[in-house]
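Re: Re: token formats

Sure, here are both.
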Amino acid sequence: MVLTRRVNETIVIGANIEVTVVGIEEDKVRLGIKAPPEINIVRRELFEAVRSENRAAAQNPRIPLDGLKRG
């Protein structure tokens, strides 16, 4: 779905999420998002970076703790 909105215009997702265009400067659009606290809102590039790091960490072999020295 592609929508056209102007500054201060809002779209509603479901019954409890609102996305408002709060500003447009050159090639950047500023959005205001109103949602319940249980809804996580994350930029896609950050979401992908975290997911990638989690996958990489899950694939590393575990180090046995009994081989570590106490200091």
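Second one below.
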Amino acid sequence: MERGVAQFGELAVSEKSWRMSLCCILILLVACTVCIGFIGCRHTQHLSPVEARRQAIDLLTQGERYEAEGEYQLALEFFIQAAEHSPRPAIFYHMGHCYAALGQYERAIPHYQKALSLAPDYALAKYELAQAEYQANRLYAEQPGHRVQRAPASMDSLSQNNQQSDTEPKAEVESRSTPTSSDLESHDAAPGAHVSAAAETKPLDISTETSSPTLSEVSIQKTEQGVPSLEKVKQLLFEREPGSNAVQRYNKQDSMILGSFAYHFQKAESFRKKMMYQEAIGEYEDALKLNPRHVQCHMMLADSSRKLKRFDRAEQHYLAALDLAPDNAESYFKLGNLYLEQKRYPQAVTSYARSVELNPEQCNVVNNLGVVYMKQNEYEKALEAFRHVLVLDPGFANAYLNLGIIFSDVYRDRTKALLYFEKYVELDGPRKDEVRAWMAELKS
């Protein structure tokens, strides 16, 4: 009996020791987890402002990528992390945009408001905030049991102040370390090429007309959850200019109704100017559904597609613009630029030649035609094109640069090459420092 009791006691002691060991291990694991978390938090907290800003920008970039693909929930995870590192207006704007795209307007509103508190002139945030508040009110009004007496009405128009641009922005210039025949100066814009009145617009300026408002008076009370009333939306849209007691006015002919062609085109232009090309493409497509024969809309959609390297789509819309306006020199010029970027040189020559035929005074087009000839090793034709550019505009710097490259790399004529390079530097060309190095090499 004593032997049996001794054995039972040994088992009890062994089980007790095992439990104590297990508890110790668990406590140790918890302690390690807490320490790791504490170290991670301390590491985050001790990031320098520059490091935090860089991390925020990286996270914002990743979030924008998912946002462009329609993965809004995944994008939000990156935006939230970015805001923790560096609370920037653009981050909160994109968070609001994602929530709005998911139909969660009540969650979108405070993020738009936060963006505006950091950047009061953030036009796109102000614009989408008004839309989100309107949609939140509409959803509330449509809830069962909620009765609203209202006639069919639209939001008040947004002003669309148009301005024309004499030139399109120039494309980036290829960089190189030494002069070669494959590296040439080309222009992505034609001087004197006017765009339509709706193509270039000022930032959104929310205003109203005092004489005949179009928004019907609707009494929608703010709910306990804090959904804003329609009056608040009207106040936002009818805000006054700083330092002015008068409400800003607009012309009826410039007005823009939500869901109209002008609405989508204006929004697309806002996205394009912010280099948000994916969003711009979507709005241009919506605009074309309402007006499929709008030449400039086809052109802008093609430009945005080209920025995203969607060359087939860009070509489709440039050609659509030409079907609608066969004598548009700018459309041929941009189509030529697309072909040049794709190294489709024969098509580029045809497009540039047609553009010059329609408007012979375009220096940029003639310059790009010379670039294509150089790509095809047709140097005599290239020389003729660049010299013709200088006849049209003796101060056209890139023509001197391209002539210098031909005489330096192809004809090995140092004297003429230096002459043209010196003229390029004298005209303060953007690559003057690089060209000075080439000149030093030629002189040595």
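The chain has a mean pLDDT of 74. Residues 2-45 form the longest helix (44 residues).
- S.
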